[in-house]
Amino acid sequence: MQGSRRRRKESTPQIKVQFGMHRKASREKKEFFMPKPTIYTIAKAAGCSTTTVSKILNNQGNISAETTARVMAIIKELNYVPQQRKQHGNAIGVIMFQTNQRPLASPFVATLLNGVCREAFGRGRDITLLDGERISKLTPEELHCFYASNSLSGLLVINLSESDPFCARLRASDLPYVILANSGTSRNSVSSRNYEAASEMIDYICCMGHTRIAFVGVVVNSYESHVLRLKAYKETLTKHGIPIRPEFIADMPDLSHSTIKNTLLRLFAHPQPPTALFFASEDMEILPVIEQMGLKIPEDISVAGMTIKRQNNANKAELATIVQPIEEIGKCGIELLLDLLNGHEPCDKVLDCQINYGDTIRRI
Questions:
Q1: Torsion angle (degrees, nearest 10) of CA 110, 111, 116, 117
Q2: Range with the poorest average pLDDT among 217-221, 251-255, 360-364
Q3: What is the mean pLDDT of the segment spanning 136-144?
Q4: pLDDT tens digits, residue range 212-230?
Q5: For 303-328, how does the pLDDT look when each residue is reduced to its tens digit (9 = 90+)?
């Protein structure tokens, strides 16, 4: 027993010496430690974008042989090992804004996503829904890291104005993206002819003899599409020599039943109320409110506006509508994004709307 204790005591200094040597070696190793290379390191050294490096790593796009060779040489020299390659290139992120945490409650968004999913799933791609309010706070560098860590291959943006600061950061991140359903100047967008369609419908209302025409929209300045519809309203009235009455333009903060009802009550409280009404949102359930107020369409008020599909009012009269190709916009968004990933030049697509004059605009 004593011999055993003696052996343990004798061995203790040896262990301490070995441990001390290990700590010394660790300090020496730390002195020669080099920062771990990243995709930004590779891109900077190669004189190209991070997107180009990503495409080379994932065998995507038409990158020249010279650039590919230069990037691969730097990757080999720095011993760079991408950590997200096993899944990168499959999932498409859909960034949604102004959904009030209920994205699928909006018929417009639900229809748009249906088109996105049908096309993406048909091409073997997954869809990841992303909270725009949270992502919009990221810097271009943070956005790129978020993109890589979530194994995304491209981004679709819904319900965001192109003038929003986030779009500038998105462009600076050099990531592939497409904006859906918002007309603007972007070459990475799919939208519909909002201005032309609204002009044609309001022109028809004017030709039917109406001069007191109300415009009812929701958060108009938040979307290029809504801004264009209001512009079409004003310019068409001016073309017909009809003065623009600010009290007939209602820009609502939301689409709740009470907000719509209060807006209509205020419009019809004027000594000379509107004889026609144009509603500028596909998600606006305005017909039930009008009927609840005891007004008949089109006898008491002529009605036209933006809808998801052709529809009738309670009296089975066909509503005068502008129907956007919403599902087609989603489908084209996936097509355009995949073209970008394959090295095609950015472009925009503008689709025609379907205009139905219906039976709800009476002649006066």
A1: 70
A2: 217-221
A3: 84
A4: 999 999 988 878 888 999 9
A5: 999 998 866 555 668 999 999 999 99
3-state secondary structure the chain: CHHHHHHHHHHHHHHHHHHHHHHHHHHHHHHCCCCCCCHHHHHHHHCCCHHHHHHHHCCCCCCCHHHHHHHHHHHHHHCCCCCCCCCCCCEEEEEECCCCCCHHHCHHHHHHHHHHHHHHHHCCCEEEEEEHHHHCCCCHHHHHHHHHHCCEEEEEEECCCCCCHHHHHHHHCCCCEEEECCCCCCCCEEEECHHHHHHHHHHHHHHCCCCCEEEEEECHHHCHHHHHHHHHHHHHHHHCCCCCCHHHEEEECCCCHHHHHHHHHHHCCCCCCCCEEEECCCCCCCHHHHHHCCCCCCCCCEEEEEECCCCECCCCCECEEEECCHHHHHHHHHHHHHHHHCCCCCCEEEECCEEECCCCCCCC
